Amino acid sequence: MTTLKVGIADPDEMKARSQRIARGEERPREADPKIWFASTESFARILSAPNREMLRIIAEQAPGSLDELAVLTDRAKSNLSRTLKTMTGYGLIRMERSGRKLAPKLVHDRVVLDLPLRQSRKRNITAEGDPS
Description:
Helix content is 47%, strand content 20%. It is of the alpha/beta class.
């Protein structure tokens, strides 16, 4: 498996960064986070203790369907569907079709958070993007 590097950045900062990249003013570095969360709170919600436990269950028990995962986690299928859709959007899992059923598969076995404490992410993104 692999490590997913995530960062925290305000949506306006990310929009500006994307525009600089599109204009060729900035080049993303290999070490840059691949996924960005809007806040530490949104990061914490997605990777809460119950959700991390669910990811562990997916990795270790490989449920073959959402129904099976619901039983293993003792969570409602509707709640799981919403959570899994969000996690898919962040690249934490993928949904694989197995016949007529969808089964969650873990994509990464580790998440690393890049969170500078001494400078704003905005200055960090700008400074790192400076090619000189």
